[in-house]
C-alpha cells in the first residue's frame, strides 16, 4: 500500500460573517489558489525541459551550454 498523504483544507469564514462581495472575493481567491497553487516558485528559468546534449554550434546561446558535458568531453 502507499504511504498516507497529509491533506490540508483551507478554512473559510462563515458566509454570514462576510458581505456578499467580500465572500465572492474570498471564494475566487481560494479557487485560484487551488487551481494554480498559492506559492510562487523561487526558481525562475526558461521553462525548457532537458532532452539531450549536442555539440556547440556558433550562434548557440552560451547560457544553454552544458559546461559539465564540455568539461567531460573536452569539446564545447
Walk me through what this model shows.
The chain is built from two helices and no strands. With 76 residues, the protein is mostly helical. The chain has one domain. It has helices at 20-36, 67-73. Helix content is 32%, strand content 0%. The relative contact order is 0.08.
Total helices: the number is: 2
| Helix-strand category | mainly alpha
Q: Any idea how many domains?
A: 1
Question: Order of helices and strands, N to C?
Answer: HH
Question: Which oligomeric form is depicted?
Answer: single chain
Largest sheet composition? none
Low-confidence stretches: none
Rg on CA atoms, Å: 24 Å
Say how many strands there are.
Answer: 0
* Secondary structure: helix percent: 25-40%
Overall outline: elongated
- What is the distance, rounded to the nearest whole angstrom, between the alpha carbons of the first and last residues? 48 Å
Global mean pLDDT:
76
Binned strand content: under 5%
Write the layout of secondary structure elements.
Elements: H1 20-36, H2 67-73
Amino acid at each position: 500500500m502507499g504511504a498516507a498523504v497529509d491533506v490540508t483544507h483551507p478554512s473559510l469564514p462563515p458566509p454570514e460573517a462576510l458581505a456578499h462581495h467580500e465572500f465572492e472575493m474570498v471564494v475566487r481567491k481560494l479557487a485560484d489558489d487551488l487551481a494554480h497553487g498559492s506559492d510562487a516558485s523561487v526558481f525562475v528559468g526558461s521553462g525548457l525541459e532537458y532532452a539531450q546534449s549536442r555539440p556547440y554550434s556558433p550562434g548557440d546561446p552560451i547560457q544553454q551550454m552544458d559546461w559539465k558535458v564540455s568539461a567531460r568531453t573536452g569539446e564545447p
